[in-house]
Amino acid sequence: MVTSLNQATGARLGAACGAAFLWGTGSLVVNLLVARHGYHPQSISFWRFVLGAASLLLVFGRGMPWRRLLREGAPLLAAGAVMASYVLLWFIGIARIGAAIPTLIALCLPPVFVTAWALARGRRRASLALLAILAASLAGTVLLIVGGGAGGGARPGATLDDWIAGVAASVGSALLYAGFTLVSPAISRKWGAGTATTALTLAATAVMGLSGLVWPLQLPHEATPEAWLLYLGMVTAALALLAFSWGAARLSPTALTVATLVEPLTAVLLAAAFLGERLQPAQWLGALLLMGGIWGLGRDMEHAS
Fold it and tell me: Where are the alpha helices (DSSP H) in the chain?
């Protein structure tokens, strides 16, 4: 019985870590689509959501409560707009300064923001350990941003303007993602994971489609970028999301933290190996502090529960 339970936990942890790895590869693909194929972040985000929505509809479409969604789906539409916005800002950060730093900021800062919000609202009790974790995370973010000098850790050729815009977009993505994580559990409980994920992705697709009125959307016209877009939509958006949702359902906060950290670590290592983005020693220290802060927050949450 214990062996079966351990095997089930291991399988769920493996699924969550695998999904996070796939998400980490997505930042590399976005960079390639921008740098080598001339795609804009808005178009990449749009096609990612289109293909992800199509894949999810194949799985959950027949069971979707469409009439109920029309009556009560306004919160889902708003959450989908936030989801589209934080993904778009993350992609803009990647387009400006590369894959590594935007991914670290966009993915590791949200738990810090959520914890700070809970403390401010009195929903979590402050302790010296928790405050130390938050301070270390914020110090790590500062080192990540300024520890490399002019453009340290960014893609080769990035200017100071690119650096400022890329960091600002990444922090904005982290703030929006933090807000999304605050409301998404209630949405999933009300609608179910499959319905909620599909509806959110459809809403995000609609929002990004409307953005084409401001930024003209690019149509895929070559086999290589088409293949990368399919990978983003069907693998990193649909398959990874389903795997992570299944894996995360019964994992402890600490185990879930391990899976979460796989994504930025994958992005940093792939960016160094394939894109020439080299973090400076101070930035590596900042990245370790930031990821260590996420680990500490997961441990603190488990002890508090």
Answer: 2-35, 41-60, 66-72, 74-97, 100-120, 128-146, 160-191, 193-211, 223-230, 240-248, 253-274, 281-304
In the block, residue with structure tokens 């930031």? 290
Residue ranges of domains in the chain? 15-304
Task: Give 207-233 pLDDT, tens digit per residue.
Answer: 999 988 888 889 888 888 889 999 999
CB atoms within 10 A of CB 272: 15
Within 10 Å of residue 203's Cβ, how many Cβ atoms?
Answer: 23
How far apart are alpha carbons 131 and 123 in whole angstroms? 15
pTM of the complete model? 0.87
Residue 121 and residue 119: Cα distance in Å, rounded?
A: 5
Q: Is the four-CA dihedral 3, 4, 9, 13 of positive or negative sign?
A: positive
CB neighbours of residue 184 within 10 Å? 17
What are the pLDDT digits (tens) for 242-301?
A: 787 777 666 665 666 667 788 888 888 888 888 888 888 888 898 888 888 878 877 776
Longest CA–CA span in the chain (Å) reads 58
